[in-house]
């Protein structure tokens, strides 16, 4: 019996009564194997992921009606492993089928539009797996914590986000929202590593230490956002992430589940195979 | 002694007197190892490639003045392995540092501009490795073969391309242009495979067989394009590609060479390390 499954991953769904404090960042829920060998646990599904990704891409290229896309939204505190997730999980996919977008502070042009404008601009193409490194959730996280937007505006955004994501889902996008949940102690360790190695200095920003003073406010903002925007067609998963290989495994299984649920097959030939074989032989 | 080197890869440079007919698509020039074990030959440089890619990205993030980019242009006949190159070579890089663009037939909007407009739009960001799957060279290849543009206009484009690429190079882009050189027999085999397997039908286009009738015209158009646009700062490499692992190895070494030539180092800390350690310890 496998040590983990898509069903196990989906148990991390943020449902009614969700409380962030109930989830230990160090834990590895539902994983039945050896925690120290987690790195190798998820390799076995790479082949299936790769095949399903190609099938999705093929359906787009062959213009099969109803072909959808996948959107993975990654959120988490600094050093929670968003970059590593992209490198190690998304990096095993074929880059031709991946649409990656990172959202930093908005540019002047982006600020001239509503907060979802830049998000819509970066939505994955049909047949592609989109990955958002941060997202429209920053507009209800940092904006709530630092009051960058009046609270009554922030309050409206939860509903706007639900509507937006519902529209995406209806248009055929499988949405997977992942909060990489880490502890403040784990973040301290990670930041210290960035100060210890010259090849990590570039990742260090003194402002990250200032933000630690707002840890509890961020946790609260996350809890509110997750509770209000986790829906059946745009689910949030709260993934304990002090153990990085565990978090990566979970995301792989969530992606696998999304791809399987599309119930795809290879596009049929839209030409007569024997005719083409004869034509080719004649060249 | 290694079986291949960056110096070996650079010997495939298209220089004066280049003749495509002199290069056998089946050959594996300068490779001194066992051809059947080529798949494993290039793995040893993955670690260095990965480190240099991260360093390039780090220099961009740290806003180090003069940070450049890399642009790999992939051209070749149908089934020459452009997609596989992206999947297997570019796919081993961190997707966060890769800017990938595929150029198909131009859209109406693209046709409303000069032929370099859509190319400029997709140039890699500073600190990134850009990969073009087809490129502005289609405008002197298929356009020449099928006279989609009057010949006198096509003739002007070689100079425009040289100027454009020279400007890019001066702006800090290391350009690597690769022609994946295959034989018509190898293409026939590849097309037959697409007719043999249901998971390959989507890649087959009956028009690809029609294009085989123009094989010699394409070879001539390639030869002209390569001769006229291979310059020291925007070199073409003609890479025999009937042996796919060989072609992939060559591109890895060319990329390695470009990254090494940037002579980078890790960006220095722009903060006092001890101060930050103390601040962090206090949180």
UniProtKB/TrEMBL annotation, chains A, B:
Checking Pfam families in the record gives: PPK2
- Identify the residues that the record assigns to the Polyphosphate kinase-2-related domain, covering every copy: 37-263
Q: Does the keyword Ribonucleoprotein apply?
A: no
GO MF annotation: an example: polyphosphate kinase activity
Keyword annotations of the record: Kinase, Transferase
Please cite one Gene Ontology biological process associated with this protein: polyphosphate metabolic process
What Gene3D superfamilies does the entry give?
P-loop containing nucleotide triphosphate hydrolases
What PANTHER family does UniProt report for this protein, alphabetically? POLYPHOSPHATE:AMP PHOSPHOTRANSFERASE (PTHR34383:SF3), POLYPHOSPHATE:AMP PHOSPHOTRANSFERASE-RELATED (PTHR34383)
NCBIfam families recorded for this chain? PPK2_rel_1
Question: What is the protein named?
Answer: PPK2 family polyphosphate--nucleotide phosphotransferase
Cite the source lineage.
Bacteria, Bacillati, Actinomycetota, Actinomycetes, Mycobacteriales
């Amino acid at each position: 019996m496998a040590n983990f499954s898509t069903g196990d991953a989906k148990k991390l769904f943020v449902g009614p009564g969700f409380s962030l404090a109930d989830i230990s960042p160090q834990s590895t829920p539902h994983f039945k194997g050896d925690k120290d060998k987690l790195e190798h646990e998820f390799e076995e599904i790479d082949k299936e992921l790769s095949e399903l990704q190609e099938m999705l891409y093929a359906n787009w290229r062959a213009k099969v009606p109803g072909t959808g896309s996948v959107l993975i939204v990654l959120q988490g505190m600094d050093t929670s492993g968003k970059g590593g997730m992209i490198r190690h999980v998304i990096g095993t996919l074929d880059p031709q089928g991946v649409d990656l977008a990172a959202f930093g502070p908005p540019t002047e042009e982006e600020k001239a539009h509503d907060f979802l404008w830049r998000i819509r601009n970066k939505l994955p193409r049909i047949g592609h797996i989109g990955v958002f490194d941060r997202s429209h959730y920053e507009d209800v996280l940092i904006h709530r914590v630092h009051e960058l937007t009046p609270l009554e505006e922030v309050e409206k955004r939860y509903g706007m986000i639900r509507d937006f994501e519902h529209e995406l889902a209806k248009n055929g996008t499988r949405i997977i929202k992942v909060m990489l949940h880490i502890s403040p102690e784990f973040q301290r360790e990670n930041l210290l590593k960035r100060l210890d190695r010259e090849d990590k200095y570039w990742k260090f920003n003194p402002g990250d230490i200032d933000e630690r003073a707002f840890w509890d406010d961020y946790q609260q903002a996350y809890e509110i956002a997750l509770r209000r925007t986790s829906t059946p067609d745009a689910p949030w998963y709260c993934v304990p992430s002090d153990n990085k290989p565990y978090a990566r495994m979970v995301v792989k299984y969530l992606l696998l589940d999304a791809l399987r649920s599309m119930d795809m097959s290879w596009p049929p030939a839209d030409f007569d195979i024997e005719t083409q074989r004869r034509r080719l032989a004649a060249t």
